[in-house]
Write a structure and sequence with these properties.
By secondary structure, the chain is α/β, with parallel strands linked by helices. The C terminus is likely disordered. It folds into 2 domains: 119 residues, ATPase, nucleotide binding domain (Nucleotidyltransferase, domain 5, 2-Layer Sandwich), CATH 3.30.420; 158 residues, 2-Layer Sandwich (Nucleotidyltransferase, domain 5). Helix content is 37%, strand content 23%.
C-alpha cells in the first residue's frame, strides 16, 4: 500500500491506497502550525489510516507528502511554507525515521495534478490549474509530473499580463495571480461574507455593477491562465481546481463566454477549441492526497 498526505494551510487530507490504486480510507484533519505540529500531525494521520484499515507500517511501500513552500524534492526539505509556519523542515528525513517508511515530498500543486489526472482517468497530457490563495499549475505527461529543468514548470501565476497592474508578492506588476486567485479576489472584493467568491458572483448575477466589473477581471484572469497553458504546453486538458473551482457553473459559464468572445475576433484562438478542453475537478475530491500517494520523484524521461 501507499499513503498520500496533502498538507494545506488549514487542513490536511490523507489517503491510503492499495496496489490497485483504490482508496481504502480518506481522512481529514486540521493542519497545525510550526515544524513540530506539522510533523506530529502527519505522523498521527498516518497511524490513524493504518488503524482504520487494520494494517501495519511494514505493509506500506511509501508515504508521499504534498506541501506548499519551496520543496527540495531530492532531499525532502521544505522551506518558506509560510502559511503553515514552517521556515525550514527536513520533513522526509524526520517523518521517515519516526515511521520507518520511505517518505517523498513534493510540491502540493504537482501532487494535485497527478491525482486529478488519475481521478478523471485521463491518459493525455494534462494541466491542473490551481485557483487557491495563489495561482499555479501542475503538468502531467505520460502519467508523470513534468517539473521542468529547475522545478519551475507551471508557475504561470507570475507571468505579467498588465504592466500597470497590482504589485505581486513576487515583485512584478500585473501577474496573473493578481487577477485570478483567492488573494486577488480578497483585494478586489473586500467583504465580511463567509464565502467572498460566492458573494461576488451572486451580486454580479443580480446586476450590481461593481461586482460585474470585478467578476470580469477574475474570469478574464482565469481564461488568460488557461490560454497561457494551452499555448505554451499544448496539453489536451486543463483541470481547474482549488478554492475558486467550488463556484462550479458560476465560474464555468462566464469562462466559456469569454472563450467564445475571443474566438469571434481570433480565428486562431477559435481553432484551439478552448471551452472543450477545460474541466472542473469534482468538489471534495482528494486529488492532492491521492497524487501525493502516487508521487515518483525519479527524473521524467520524456519531454514536452
Amino acid at each position: 500500500m501507499r499513503i498520500g498526505i496533502d498538507i494545506g494551510g488549514t487542513k490536511t487530507d490523507a489517503v491510503i491506497v492499495d496496489d490497485s490504486l483504490v482508496v481504502r480510507q480518506h481522512l481529514r484533519r486540521p493542519t497545525g502550525r510550526g515544524n513540530v505540529a506539522v510533523v506530529d500531525g502527519a505522523e498521527r494521520i498516518v497511524r490513524d489510516l493504518l488503524d482504520g484499515v487494520g494494517a501495519t507500517t511494514g505493509e506500506v511501500e511509501q508515504i508521499g507528502v504534498g506541501i506548499p513552500g519551496v520543496v527540495d524534492e531530492l532531499t525532502g526539505r521544505v522551506r518558506h511554507a509560510v502559511n503553515i509556519g514552517v521556515a525550514e523542515l527536513e520533513l522526509a528525513a524526520i517523518l521517515g525515521a519516526r515511521l520507518s517508511i520511505p517518505v517523498v515530498v513534493g510540491n502540493d500543486v504537482n501532487a494535485a495534478a497527478l491525482g486529478a489526472s488519475h481521478l478523471l482517468d485521463l491518459h493525455v497530457p494534462t494541466a491542473f490549474l490551481n485557483l487557491g490563495t495563489g495561482l499555479a499549475a501542475g503538468l502531467v505527461v505520460d502519467g508523470r509530473v513534468w517539473r521542468g529543468a529547475r522545478g519551475g514548470a507551471g508557475e504561470i501565476g507570475h507571468i505579467p499580463v498588465d504592466p500597470s497592474g497590482a504589485l505581486c508578492p513576487c515583485g512584478q506588476r500585473g501577474c496573473l495571480e493578481t487577477m485570478a486567485s483567492g488573494s486577488a479576489l480578497a483585494r478586489l472584493w473586500p467583504t465580511d461574507a463567509a464565502l467572498p467568491a460566492v458573494d461576488l458572483f451572486e451580486r454580479a448575477e443580480a446586476g450590481q455593477q461593481n461586482a460585474v466589473a470585478v467578476r470580469e477581471t477574475v474570469v478574464t484572469g482565469v481564461a488568460s491562465a488557461v490560454r497561457v497553458l494551452l499555448l505554451s504546453t499544448d496539453v489536451e486538458t486543463v483541470i481547474i481546481g482549488g478554492g475558486l473551482s467550488n463556484l462550479g457553473e458560476r465560474l464555468m459559464r462566464p469562462l466559456r463566454e469569454t472563450f467564445e468572445r475571443w474566438g469571434r475576433t481570433s480565428p486562431f484562438l477559435d481553432s484551439l477549441d478552448l471551452s472543450s478542453r477545460v474541466r472542473l475537478l469534482p468538489p471534495e475530491s482528494p486529488a492532492a492526497a491521492l497524487g501525493a500517494a502516487l508521487l515518483d520523484l525519479r527524473p521524467l524521461a520524456s519531454a514536452i
